[in-house]
Amino acid sequence: MSGVPLQTALPPAQEATRAFLNSLDPARRVVVFCHFDADGLSAGALFGRTLPRLGFRDVRVVPSGRGESAFSDAARARLGALGPQGLIVTDLGVNGRGVLPDVPTLYVDHHQPDGVPTGNVTVVSGYTWDPIPASAWLAYELLAPLADIADLAWIGAVGTLGDLGDSAPWDALPEIKKRYTAKWLREAVALVNAARRSSAFDIGTPLNLLLSAAGPKELATDDAHGADRLRTYRAEVSAELAAARRAAPKFSATGPYALLRLHSGAQIHPLIAQQWRGRLPGHAVIAANTGYLPDTVAFSMRTARKDLNLPAILQGIEVGDVGGSYGHGHDQASGGQLPPGAFNQVLEALGFDESVRV
Predict the structure, then answer these.
(1) Are residues 135 and 200 in the same domain?
(2) Could you tell me the CATH number of the domain that includes residue 277?
(3) How far is Cα of residue 240 from the mean position of the Cα atoms in its chain?
(4) Under 8 Å between Cβ of 137 and 124
(5) Is 301 exposed, middle or buried (0-12, 13-18, 19+ CB in 10 A)?
(6) How far apart are CA 353 and CA 274, in angstroms?
(7) Could you report the per-residue pLDDT of 47-70, keeping only the tens digit for each?
């Protein structure tokens, strides 16, 4: 997708971020609501560490919960109970429903938007930019003109590498790799992601390390603050992946879709879908996990095909009101969490035989 050049889009986005932060009282609470993957936690940590340097005295970084939509009533209640005067939502999408409609909100994101929230909102979305930045990359670029955060660039790299890989087109990345080494950056990415993929779903440990560590090596080796737990999570996820790789795909009778059925308490379905995306480049691959959430099918959908827009495909299938936990993401990466009956409706619409339904 060809979009607005990043260097053209970035200056007005930086100014919008400055104006939003200047509108807040630094003595009152600001909540940073972020996704729980490496990109989201890194973006959240960048705001969590930079805002105090700008004079904000009460900053809370709150990751989204397991299976939780950022736009659900449960998320609103959890965030509203914190009493924020300002809210920053990052790496969780942009939705017309909004999160806390009565609270001034800054959205920093790179996924395909699903509407524009009303009220006192500032939306910085890199979805239409070229290249599309990861949320942590975007957060770093938005904050860098406001404070000296060169020592936090590694956090932006952890999120960017976690989302876009080693070939991420961020101009700052080569220098960050040189300073901190690619080895330790990759190790930090793997450990941060292992925590949320594990059955324990421990997102507090990696977030606390991102909020306190001086660099990726410290994050990966600071056993006093939980780095050893992260290594244990990685071993668990590796074992679950090894078992899941034995699953064989089933194919739609009517469209370019392949299904892999999984049952694991670990969040391995995105990884399995991504791996099979490379093996089946002509298909959209669905990895469906019936063991991750109670009475729910958690699934990831990935494709290498440029002519398939996965959020549009999923949103074109009626599944009822599922609280915003379905059909978001990027053109080639989507998914959701659905009750079994609703997920079977998706499989039926995509042309899968009744024998493979959950």
Answers:
(1) yes
(2) 3.10.310.30
(3) 21
(4) no
(5) buried
(6) 23
(7) 999 999 999 999 999 999 988 888
